Amino acid sequence: MQFKNIIICTSLMVALTQVSCKKFLDQQPKTALTQEQAFSKLDNIKPLISGLFTNWRNVRKDRGGFMFELGSDEAQQGAFQVLSDPDQAALDKYDGFMAPRNNALTGQWQSRWPIVVAAAQAVFALQSNHEDEATRTELLGEASFIRAGVNFELTQYWGKIPISDPARFDQLGTKRQPLDQVYAYIINDLETAVKYLPETQADKSHVTKYAALALLGKVYMSAPTEANVRSFQKAADTLNLVIQSGKYSLLTNYADLWDPAHANSSESIYEYQFNNTYPDNNQTQWQMGSRALANLPSIGANCYFGGYDLMVPTSYCYSDKSAGGLWETGDVRKQQSIRYDFTYQGITPTLSTGFGGDELDPHVKKYEDPRTDGTLSFWYSGKNIFYIRYADVLLMYAECLNELGKTNDAVALMNSTVRARAFGGTIPAGASWDPGMSQDSFRTNIMDERMRELCFEGWRRSDLIRTGNFVNLVKARNKWTMQSGTIQAFNQLYPIPLTETQQNPDIPATDQNPGY
Amino acid sequence: MTKYLFFLLLCACTGLVHAQDQTRGLTVKGTVREKSTGQPIPGVQVTLKSDPKNIVTANASGEFTITVPSPNAILIVHALGYSDIEVSAGKKTALTIDLETNAVSNLDEIVVVGAVIKRHDLTGSVATVDAKTIGMTPTSDIGTAIQGKVAGVYVTNSSQPGSASSIKVRGNNSLSYGTSPIFVVDGVIVGDNLNALNPDDIASMEVLKDASATALYGSRGANGVILVSTKKGRKNTGVVHYNNWLSASGYERKMKFMNAQQIYNLRADAYANEYIRQNPAADRQAYINGITSDTSTAVFAPYEQQTFRSGKSYDWLKPVSQNGMAQNHTLDFSGGSDKGTYYLSLNYTDQKGLIKGADYKRMGARINIDQNVKSWLKVGTYTTFTHSITDLADGSIFPTAVAANPLLPIDTAGLYTLKWGGIDNQDQYNPLRSLYIKNNQYLNRLLTSNYISVAPIKDLAIRTSFSADISNEQQYTYIPTTTGQDLRNSNHGNAIQYKLENYNLQWDNSATYTKRFGEHRFNFLVATSMQKNTSNYNSITAYGFPNDDFGYMYLGGVTSRDKTVLASDFVTKTLMSYLGRVDWGWKDKYFATATLRYDGSSNFGPNHKWGAFPSLAVAWDMSREDFMSKIDFISHWKWRVGYGVAGNQNIPNYATKSLYRPSYTNGSVTYVSDGRLGNPDLQWERQKQTNIGADIGLLHDRLNLTADYFTIKNDKLLIDRKLALTSGFYDEVANIGAMTNKGIEFTLDYAIVKQKDLQWNFRFMISRDRNRVTRLFGDAPIYSTGGFTGTQIQRTGNFFVGQPVNNIYALKFLKIAQVGDTAKLNPKMFSGHLVGAGDIVPLDKDGNGIVDDNDRYVVGKLDPDFYGGFGSDITYKGIGLTVFFNYSSGLKRISSLYEAGISSDGTTAASVDMLKRWTPTNTNTIIPRAIHNYSRYGPGDVDAYVQDASFLRLSVLSLSYTLPKSVRKNMFDNARIYVTGSNLWLITKDKGYDPETGDGFPNTKSVTVGLNLSL
Q1: Does B487 sit within 8 Å of A500, measured CB to CB?
Q2: Which of A130, B367, B403, B952 would you call most buried, defined as having the most Cβ atoms within 10 angstroms of its Cβ?
Q3: What confidence tier does B119 reach under pLDDT thresholds 50, 70, 90?
């Protein structure tokens, strides 16, 4: 009897095992949403899109945030940096290391695509969502903006890019699409964004309608001719909507732009939100500051303008006009943009040997964060970084006016706004631009004016390319490009990374940008 | 070894004996039985004492026939796992001999997949390590104890107290996910961490190497299985045993760095070289005179001038070092009655490492009970609890102390970071201050296996067991304000609290049925197993402490609240298995085992959870064939062939799904993807392994050989695949790669002298395995990136089709540029690197005029070509001498410390090899010149300075004395004292600290004094 019972019990136990096993092996993540859950409802999509703003912001953090500012006519690598990694050096040298396997560029490609694809998934999910309409459309505007913004960066740097649209994935796959389609897609997204985005945002990490308009204006001006959408008229009309809104104005004092106390000011159309706490710091000063200061015994670690010389101004960018450079006498922007004096707490630092010798040449000042001084490592620097500010809108608008034959109006606009402020509010007679300036002279002058106003803010490369000045100006002004002497027109576009052509059957190695 | 001893066959010489004895001998017949059960014991070896050549082996029913010269003849009856006994042949012609199970090692039965099976039923390639071998090395770490002693098992020691060695069985069989075998302790699968076990408690370890052996654990056996059986009590005895050792240790060897005077001259040379490079017409000697003059501060800081002139040199390693000490005590009690047995042990171990503050303490207890409740019902438990405390010295202490400036006077008061010249090196935290950092880890671990076994009918056993491996780990760190780390990061005190709980529950059910049909013996096993692993952790990182007095213990008062980092997670994983197995034997000559395992894992998606893992092994005891009986010197010869499939599911949690987690940033919550694309098609990695082996006994089993050849094809390799970024994700886990692994293993055991008073044994093991990646996605290489910009290709961690998994990928060294070369070298070729006379020139492999990543080669691998151990022990009466060597050959190692040491410009630590550096008068060298402030190829860019990490190490040299009965009287049943030297001698070309443990933490050599007492 006993045995029988035992056998019965055992059989029961085994049977129990069978019944529960299906459930037993089904283990779901307890601390994460799956993709299906994340895109299933507005309550989830909303923080997801906030996350995309964070990821987009993070692209501008640290070393990676400045890769596309190197190799321009306003900024280049510090001497020690250019010796340290040939791939990174190629961004200034445009030499044989500017190739599909360039890892520094691969990193930039990598940081952007996840944002585009996630934004595309969000747009796709929102199109079929039937929850609260007001929330849905606002989120649709935001997702469309992010997709357009990042796609615009990608297409400027790499040319033809895949269009990420889940609704048409079967048709488009991850093939590179012609430029006209890429730009049509970007413009379409921005039009959606303009339609649905609110005029103001309490949460400054989110974008407004005017950010979409300002970006749309930029897209119309910058689109390459093959895209068939470049239009200064459309650009002017769009930018004029921003100006006419009356919501933005230049700060009286140029220095306030770089004072963290004036974050998100009336001049800011959109700025990336940072602070001094990891992970919301941006480490920018770590890359911009001078190693000579960082190496000061015991105080160097917390000196707010110490750093490691990733990016320094070109000599054109820090020199006076009289010395063949950029700056006019009396322009207050010079001392706010560039650090010339390295005296710190009464100590005049000296060059530490072994680091290239340019550590005490003028450095970028715009990103210095005095809040860290003496208490935090400059690694914690975390001032907001401008995406588009009102001064850029005015500069772009003036450029459009000039291209539309209204040079007179363009000069007047500059003299009364951007240039007036540059000289402390009232423009001195000698500095005022001549209303009779030729269209061509204006083109040259506005390029310098853009550098004076917007240097190190991330738009220089696209300015050089859209105006056709890329090769000649970079070759003439960037120390490393000049030394290498290998820059060519095809370098306007970067090579598609090797990892992409190897892993993506839709982009074979033969579908590479010309020259690489 | 056991298994083939059971199948020993008649030695050919018995034939001769027979021939003689038919005329004048006496034929004795007998049966050998297990004393407690009365069951016959097959395969027992019976030897005539007066003529050791006269050996017979009992048949499957335990019966033997031997011819003896006279009734007074003494027979020695020997069976592994039982105590040898001597019996007089007597006048009876039918003897019944009862053997008693060997006290120390209950070798016959082991627990696998919740069933008790006979050891010899483990077909396939299995290596056994017994308690004696484990005890040879006094250590608290099991990996160290078996290093070099098992063919096919590659152990890499760790030199940090309390951290376990890494173990690989048959090399690398997976690319990304796991190379460690699983450990099964008394039937409980405990993963790859054995640090809670006391080696003194271990009765034996079985290493299951090929797929037919690991098939029992098919789901997780791809990297090998190590079965650990702990000790049991012996029936009708009572034993108290005390084992104690004390050891003292010091640095095994030190890397030779330049002293203060040498580094001073090196720096002067380096600066002068750069000065002359820039000013070719200048007077070199005048420049050197200038910078070395008393008053100059251009190159040397005043403190450096002072040290140099005083003739002193400062060794920063000394003040952070201490003598290592260790002690270990195990007290155990064992015994039993006819109803059951018990084993109870207590253990305490305490180790102090060579760096101040590094120590390890462990307290543990074990209880093993087997009890017959009824004639048909048996229950038991195998349970151990361990508490350990590991204090880690901060990781920066040793490397910083080693690389410190010998010109810098040792100073704790003023310096936060170390100086070279006038510059504070922000990365070199004063190691004396780093000693203030507290890093304490506590581990509590309960490992328990409990079973109920019923025998409802004859030959059928049904067993159910509940097991648990529960651990609670706590790690606490405090970096006080008095450290350089704190100053640099402006933390004002930084504490980290980390707590991890792990519950691994396992429920196994099995039924075994043994049946004979004539000459056919069958053993059937069916089993199920369920496992659930839940773990959770939480951690707090806090900054801003009002004082350093409370360390990490009180977080309530921290000030930098906005910097506080919180983290936690909860994870559950489950596994479910069904197993069926048949063993068949015919005439003890032919054997076969077929296993089919069906496993489900929660790691995979709904359609791919289950995998079937079949295996088949056949064996042929050739020596039982008639044609072998004539061959005198062969005592047994068994062939084994096995084929099987094993699996691997060791992937990141929830890899089948794309995951989004909330993240707090800038005052709001966002959902962020972790960048990994979920792959619902993930399935089991499959490993197909074929094994051919032979077990050979020669010269009456005094010479035993085991040889195995294996070939493994790993398919559907689970790999972390980098995705095309246009997919929107960085990577996914996918079954894409394939690799092969082939190898041989050979073990030799030779009893050179086997007499009553003198025994001399020699053993030798060699293993070789060679792997190749045979397929990757699109066969494109997978690069590992990192370094200065985070995007540079690294030397290790890259995968290439056709290359070994753990390869080193670097430029090839062409030459050191000579004076005449520099004009010929095109500077554009070197992409920004300067190349002057005395600098490294790499090879432009593709000859395109640019040296870049395309010119890299696979220049070596981190795994050995072959490895193993050999040793000998001699016992004369009570005195024993043991030596054991480990070796490893054909492997390379990257020693960044050495590479930095030979590229110094005198402002960083320099290897004494720089005394042989290139100068215009010393041109026949591969050590580049010293030059300051100059960007050139470093030793780390090329292959010439990759270390040859082959080594031969005297791991054990031990002398022991077992007290004779005349001395110990009746006080002790056994008393033994020993002294053992560990790692006393090392031969290697490796220029770093140690070819095996690397440069991160110093390896030790030690002398141990030990005592074993039984009463």
Answers
A1: no
A2: B403
A3: low
Place of tokens 């299995």: B126
Q: Does A507 touch chain B (CB under 8 A)?
A: yes
Q: What is the spatial distance between Cα B907 and Cα A354, in angstroms, rounded to a whole number?
A: 10
CA B362 to chain centre: 20
Mean pLDDT in residue range B866-890: 93
d(CA B257, CA B401): 12
Residue of A nearest to B609 (CA): A25
Give dist(CA A280, CA A369) in Å, integer: 14
pTM: 0.81
DSSP state of B732: E
Among the ranges given (B42-51, B150-159, B993-1002), the one the predictor scored with the smallest mean pLDDT: B42-51
Cα first-last separation, chain A: 84
Q: CA of A293: which chain B residue's CA is closest?
A: B423
| Number of neighbouring beta carbons within 10 Å of residue A170 | 7
Q: Which of B422, B528, B935 sits opposite A83 (nearest CB)?
A: B935
Closest CA to B170 of B189, B157, B146, B153: B153
Answer whether residue B258 shows pLDDT above 70.
yes
How many Cα neighbours within 13 Å face the side chain of B557?
12
B399 torsion bin: left (phi>0), alpha (psi -120 to 50), beta (else): alpha
Task: Assign 3-class secondary structure to B119-182.
Answer: HHHCCCCEEEEEHHHHHCCCCCCHHHHHCCCCCCEEEECCCCCCCCCEEEECCCCCCCCCCCCE
A5 touches chain B (CB under 8 A): no
pLDDT score of B105 more than 50: no
Q: How far apart are CA A33 and CA A47, in angstroms?
A: 12
The pLDDT confidence band at residue B653, using thresholds 50, 70 and 90, is confident
B970 and chain A in contact, CB less than 8 A: no
Q: What is the pLDDT of residue A127?
A: 92
Helix ranges (H only) for A349-478 are 390-403, 407-416, 418-422, 439-454, 460-466, 470-477
- Strands B685-698 and B634-648 turn out to be antiparallel
Q: Which two tokens stand for residue A405?
A: 């034959």
Q: For residue B96, which of B105, B104, B87 has the smallest C-alpha distance?
A: B87
Judge: A97–B852 Cβ closer than 8 Å, yes or no. Answer: yes
Give me A137's structure tokens: 């459309």
| Strand, coil or helix: B713 | strand
pLDDT above 90 covers a percentage of chain B that reads: 49
Asked whether the beta carbons of residue B666 and residue A275 sit closer than 8 angstroms, the reply is yes
* Regions of chain A with pLDDT less than 50: 1
Lowest average pLDDT, out of B619-623, B828-832, B994-998, goes to B828-832
Residues in chain B: 1015
Chain A residues within an 8 Å CB radius of B563: 277-278
SS3 content of chain B, % helix, strand, coil (to 5): 15, 50, 35
- The answer to whether the complex's ipTM is over 0.95 is no
The verdict on a CB contact (< 8 Å) between B831 and A54 is no
**Dist. CA B935–CA B929, nearest whole Å:** 13
Instruction: Read off the amino acid at residue A285.
Output: Q
Q: Does A116 contact chain B (CB < 8 Å)?
A: yes
Q: Are B955 and B869 in contact (CB under 8 A)?
A: yes
Collapsing DSSP states into helix, strand and coil, what is residue B690? strand
Question: Which residues on chain B are in Cβ contact (under 8 Å) with A28?
Answer: 654
- Cβ of A1 under 8 Å from any chain B Cβ? no
Question: For residue B854, which phi and psi values (nearest 5 degrees)?
Answer: -65, -15
CB A67 within 8 A of CB A92: no
Lowest model confidence (mean pLDDT) among A18-27, A241-250, B131-140, B265-274: A18-27
More confident residue, B709 or B212: B709
The 10s digit of each residue's pLDDT in B390-399 is 999 998 999 9
